[in-house]
Specification:
Strand order of the largest sheet: 3-2-4-5-6-1-7
Number of strands: 7
Largest sheet: 7 strands, mixed
Number of helices: 6
Distance between the termini: 34 Å
Shape: elongated
Strand content: 35-45%
């Protein structure tokens, strides 16, 4: 096969992959009470404690936290490790309250309330979820020989980023509501001499969608009780 034919084959396959690959994103919001973050009040983003110890990825927590504090109307986001240390031992993974009903009891302790006041945190955003590979297939082989090297084949995989953020109002000792984002994307790599990757950034998209919805939620803008949207890229 001539070099031109190979390049045409690469272009056809690449175009096919680009057209077939997509990301599907959905966000949902449930509001139980009004929210309002004062100028002196802050929030903290924590991984919701799990019985099996497998919590939300640290880089996703950082992504959401950084997104919420950026921009002209960003929030005061407390570093999660600093907050947990300042509130030791009440927000350690093994002792943190896992149900909203436990907030009032926790806040009834004078020492807890005093330490919380020093942190400036009013809202705790509990993040739960993960990014997982859900499917995949194909094969890709690469090799090298004197004067030549390359790859041939086709491989694909699907990942899902499914996260939920539950917002607790520590001042009111109640759960304010929740926001969730579910993003599914198909990635592929085409081997036609040079490997050509087509990557669906599902976790980054989930962070952007969840952070945007959380920002609206915390600012207290009017929203429906349950709002969902989906799109294809």
């Amino acid at each position: 096969m001539s070099k031109i034919s190979v390049l045409r084959l690469i272009a056809v396959v690449a175009a096919s992959v680009a057209l077939s690959a997509c990301m599907r994103a959905r966000t949902e919001e449930v509001r139980e009470m009004a929210t309002s973050v004062g100028e002196t009040e802050g929030i903290v983003v924590l991984a919701k404690p799990q019985s099996d110890g497998a919590g939300t990825e640290a880089k996703f927590l950082d992504c959401v936290g950084d997104s919420l504090k950026s921009g002209e109307h960003g929030f005061k986001v407390k570093n999660n490790k600093e907050f947990v240390n300042a509130m030791f031992p009440w927000f350690e993974p093994s002792t943190a309250p896992v149900r909203a009903e436990a907030i009032a009891e926790l806040m009834s302790h004078e020492q807890v309330a005093r330490r919380l006041d020093t942190t400036g945190v009013r809202y705790v955003v509990w993040l739960n979820g993960a990014t997982r590979k859900t499917d995949g297939g194909g094969s890709l082989a690469c090799g090298a020989a004197p004067g030549a090297a390359g790859c041939i084949g086709f491989g694909w995989w699907e990942k899902e980023s499914d996260y939920q953020a539950t917002v607790w109002d520590l001042k009111q000792s109640r759960a304010a509501g929740s926001v969730s984002a579910d993003v599914t994307g198909t990635s592929a790599i085409v081997g036609a001499i040079v490997p050509l990757p087509f990557i669906a950034r599902v976790q980054g998209t989930a962070c952007n969608r969840l952070s945007s919805q959380l920002r609206t939620f915390l600012h207290g803008e009017p929203v429906a009780e349950i709002k969902s949207a989906s799109r294809k890229n």
